[in-house]
Write a structure and sequence with these properties.
170 residues; Archaeosine Trna-guanine Transglycosylase, Chain: A, domain 4; 3 helices; 2 domains; alpha+beta; five-stranded antiparallel sheet
Length: 170
């Protein structure tokens, strides 16, 4: 008999499909493979981190160990939404781990970065895959991830949450 998902509790993701006991739950292997396949983030980036699910498909990353299951309000930071057609990384995750990404990173110029941070959608040319991208901009000689964008039909849609959007005009 399969266990059920308890939306009030954190459960560590099983390492592999063979270890899964909750139907539909992502595995650590699938999450690490997703970040490697989609964004080129090396799997070893996540050594020392554990992944957890709370609710239906809200995946959290935690730099350490904890007993599982655990009934607390938060552990680490949200990193990924699964249980939907296309998995979506969170802004927090992209800003923390996006610096090591080598794929599906769209480099924005100053004006494009300002518009993205303000939550504006914009028409842009991109010769990579459609879907969720890491939007980045060069700051002080370093490529800095700004957040998650959704690229479809020649348009980059800013996924910056409303409460984090900023008007950087000045």
């Amino acid at each position: 008999m399969s266990e059920t998902n308890d939306g009030q509790r954190f459960d560590r993701l099983p390492a592999t499909e063979a270890e899964r006991s909750v139907e539909g739950r992502a595995t650590r292997e699938a999450v690490v493979d997703f970040f490697a396949d989609r964004f080129g983030i090396p799997p070893e980036t996540f050594d020392g981190y554990t992944f957890w699910e709370k609710g239906a498909g809200k995946i959290w990353i935690y730099g350490g160990q904890a007993p599982s299951p655990v009934e607390i309000e938060a552990i680490g930071m949200t990193c990924l939404r699964t249980r939907q057609e296309h998995w979506k990384p969170t802004t927090d995750f992209v800003q923390r781990f996006g610096r090591v990404a080598t794929d599906c990173v769209i480099d924005l110029d100053r004006d494009q970065a300002r518009r993205f941070a303000a939550g504006e959608d914009q028409e842009l040319e991109w010769d990579g895959d459609w879907g969720y991208l890491i939007a980045a901009h060069e700051v002080a000689g370093e490529e800095e991830p700004l957040g998650v964008g959704l690229y479809v039909h020649g348009e980059l849609r800013s996924m910056v949450p409303k409460g984090r959007q900023r008007d950087l005009e000045s």
